[in-house]
Prior knowledge:
There is one protein chain. This protein has two domains: 2-39; 48-99, Arc Repressor Mutant, subunit A, CATH 1.10.10. It is 75% helix and 0% strand. The protein has five helices and no strands. The protein is elongated, with a radius of gyration of 16 Å. The chain starts with a helix and ends with a helix.
Amino acid sequence: MLGVIDKMIKQRRESIAQFEKAARKDLVDAEKAEIQLLSGYLPAQMSDAELAQAVSAAIAESGASGVKDMGKVMALLKPRLAGKADMGKVSALVKTKLSG
């Protein structure tokens, strides 16, 4: 169920980007209201510090040593963070940590 709600929120974020390009504030506002409603059904979102800690733990657990191992790390994180974090944000953080 969390996956479905998360997907619905992602779709609305994509719609917002398109509506903003078209200067349709009325549609942007409607999509934002729907996101807020849907977010009420998700668990509390993780803080940036908690997210960074979870990513670091998954990297250590998977033995990842570079960006080529990103799939292993994401496979560990996806079920753990479902509904608790924006997976796009998680992916970017994993990539950053594995690049550096």
